[in-house]
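Same chain as my last thread, 247 residues:
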Amino acid sequence: MNSIEKKPLKCLKCGKPYRDKSFRYLDGFKIIPIPDCHCSKEKETKKAQEDKLKNTGIPKSFQSGAMRDWVDMPGSESCKKMIINYYSEIENNLVSGKGLMIIGSTGVGKTKMVSALLKRIIKNHNKTGLFVSVPTMELELSSKKEGSKEMRCYLKKMTDVDVLVLDDIVNDENSSWCNKFISMIVWSREEDKKVTFFTSTKGVAILKNVFGDQTIGRILSLTGRNIEINTSKVDMRDPINKEKYLK
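reply #2:
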């Protein structure tokens, strides 16, 4: 019998050797194990993450953004620092169910920041996430009957997810039923210690008038801290401002 010659088995896709695998030549015949290449596993993992992100409901305009892409605007520096500090303690925050409330005028980057934060948590910490625009939710609720099975499933989707974003929690179109629905979400998530992020153009005093003492108390319990973006109402949706601060 001929001596056994060991050679690395390389993946035909990526060209790299399989991890801890080899094939042998024995009496002129090639004995080849068929392991799963790490590139295939990485590809599967990446696809699973992409599918998870695709199902979060993050608006398309914010799907490609990352925390490093945040634009420096007057007044936003302290906000960015607080969010980065929050993420540095993310393991503890996920266990304790502490989220954030980001308050600021229209177009200052609240949605962009919270979308990037949600994406990073899903990607790096294997959590499920859901982004919900409250004005859009208002339309969804109008098509569902209160107390129906469809409504209960819709509520369960928001209460069960690991990390939830409620974007633009108060606006001029909110109905009393929408506010009641938000209160149910908040009460359930606060009891289950689930991370929730809120964005609002209104301050805490107005939120208290809308939701009442008990619900706002639970919102503040969920968030732990409020971050207010003081940018003198610089609207980054305005092309002039966008060009100015992206230079």
